[in-house]
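Example 3.2
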Amino acid sequence: MKKVLFSLLLILFWACPSDTVVNNNPYLRPTSFSYDINMNLPAYSNLQFASNFVILDNIGINGVIVFNTGTGYVAYERSCSNHNLNSCSLLDVVGIEATCQCADAIKYSIFTGQIINGTGDYGLLTYRVTQSGDVLRVTN
């Protein structure tokens, strides 16, 4: 009986999901940061409305895109997830799409982070966003 109980506990331990984000993308190196956004400040006030975004150039690898989906906030690395870091891998954001400036011009949805036009193995690298009142905290 003890062996069965121990085996069951062991299986449950390994089966439980972890809160740790695993980045297996060979193109983007891990980076660590924590950044607070006060949405009452003029530079960030448009984040209070759905389908608006801001770009934070001073964090992440090449900056971070923070987007209001209407049901919450998401944050993505501003580097193309399917290319080595170079001058063309910086994403150009227009409306609800982010486009890689490299020759293949992969387009990503900033609602979901997934590829919507072109081919690649990776969606956008996601960062964690938490909200406390009018302050968003973006972390990795």
